[in-house]
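Writing this down once: the sequence line spells out the residues, with the fold written below as integer tokens. This is how one looks:
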Amino acid sequence: MKQEIYIENLKCGGCAATIKKGLLAIDAISNVEIDVEKSIVTVNSEKDNIEQVKEKLSKLGYPEVGNKNTIVHKAKSFVSCAVGRIDS
């Protein structure tokens, strides 16, 4: 099952690396693709776990477009971005 989510705060490859690592840790997810320019995360999963994916994205600092994008989300995304740059 392919699921597409438009997210906030996605800025670079560092962000993408953190998102990919975080989402691949969820059971049943086999692939994660990230379009940094369009702020789209595409997830291939064996089951319908879209709410779990959205929750994980929000915890990483990348809430779905249209959801509340608080200063906490922005701060978390900044840290996630930096960590992703170091890890990649």
